[in-house]
Amino acid sequence: MNNSAMLPGYLPPEHRGDRNPHFKYAVLAAVLVEVGIVAGLLSMPRTPPAPKPVKKVVSVHMVTLPPPPPPAPKVIPPKPAPPRPTVPPRPVVHRPAPVPIQPPAPPQPPVVHRPPPPVPVPPIPVTPPSPPIPAPPAPAPVYSGIGAYGSGARSLVKQNLRIPAIIKRLHLHGTVVVSFRVPPGGGKAFKMRVVGGTGNPLIRRAALRALSATSFPVYTRTMPNKALTFTVPIEIS
């Protein structure tokens, strides 16, 4: 082959080693890599192909069933014979033997019981009554002031009484009896409740409202030092 027909940069084999000394080593390394790849592909396990699904064949056989047996005849039990009527035994009557009649006894004379003679009773000596013992003189009344305090409390409640307009419009009137307790130091009452009088709720509410608005004075010296209960009537007209 003529050298002028060669491609540019082409070197004949006898001159390649002179210009590139590592070319031989590169070719040898490439050959070793290809051999390793081929050996790896040959050593890999081959996956077997998936088995094809087997079609199941179902065989159907037609079977002719024998005809059903005829029904058994119904057995009718014989009717029981009616019971024979029983004849009750005749009662045996026992007649008592006749009792002989005895003649009546002759009447006896009546027995008279005479009372014993009275025993004389000695007379009881009469003792003259002793003169009556004179009664002790009644104690002088002690003025406690509770009654006067209750009357004043009633007046105070009436002063605080405010009749609602609905009671005036309906012309209602009546008396409410209220019970309440006041402490010795005076002030507001407690334990207030209605104990009698009219049952109209409007009048009762007005009386309790007036009682709640009332302030009571301190007890007097003659009154006991404890809370007392007072019961006063409140008239609403």
From TrEMBL:
Pfam families: TonB_C (PF03544). Residues 148-237 form the TonB C-terminal domain. PROSITE patterns: TONB_CTD. GO terms for biological process: transmembrane transport. It comes from the Bacteria. Residues 67-114 are annotated as: Disordered. This is Energy transducer TonB. It comes from Acidithiobacillus ferrivorans.
